[in-house]
# Entry
Amino acid sequence: MTYHEFTQLLDNKAEAIQAKCVEGVCSFDMFMSEVKYWMKQNLEVLECTEASLLGSILYLAEFGLPPFTPEGYSYILVEKVGRKSNALPFIGYRGIIELAYLNKKVKRIGMDSVYSGETFSYSQSSLGGFNHTKINQKPLSIENTKHEERGKLTYVYAYATIEGLDAIYSIVSVGDLEKIQKNSRLTKKEKFLSSTIDFFNIMQSKVCIKLMFKTLPKKDNRLLCKALDYDNLIEYSKNIVVESVGNDYELIDTVKRQSSALQEVLLDKIELKIKE
# Structure
């Protein structure tokens, strides 16, 4: 498919895409503009089947998260399966955070990484118990444009303050991150065509955010909860693709060739502990 053919496809499906852009992060006009612009910078995606490419666009339109933007809201990766290429949409951790902020009760969301040599402690009673002191970092300057090496990654943590709820947070060790990562289809990077995607961003950076939001009530968080469930399906079920069906999309099991929209895939339950 050429880029011109792609823009024609989008314009022909504009009504269906607009019907999806109702509750999400950005408006229909902004979504269409961003998709056309950033897809031009990632032309390898146009090698995919029309059904999977259009399905991915409709899927991301529902959440109002255009792919490839500098913010890293979402991505469309090209997965090679024999002679065929399928488009696979993935939501980045910044996209998940933006969906969470659609709920006006959400006051603050944060996340960070802890590296060896840094001090890190927390109290289970409140978010105020977090104490993370970063070391081995020089301030940015003209002469020093990169942070000094902080050592090996040890933990990733996320926290949120939501009106009417107790403070929520999650802390995941690098060992648990690696266990979860092994189950991701993104682990086999050689199956994907991409010169610009940060796989670490897609996999590890959002695991902690996902775990933190997993127990949120669906009331006031419907779109976020749907994004978490469907993103898990796409990332951890190795045969799932998103394909256009009429003016909508479905999650399809390519082996059984049936809809998997009602299937549920959750991250493995893990013990989140910090060793003193």
User: Anything to note?
Assistant: Residues 118 and 134 are 5 Å apart (CA to CA). The first strand starts at residue 74 and ends at 81. Helices lie at 3-12, 14-20, 28-39, 50-63, 93-100, 174-182, 199-213, 222-236.
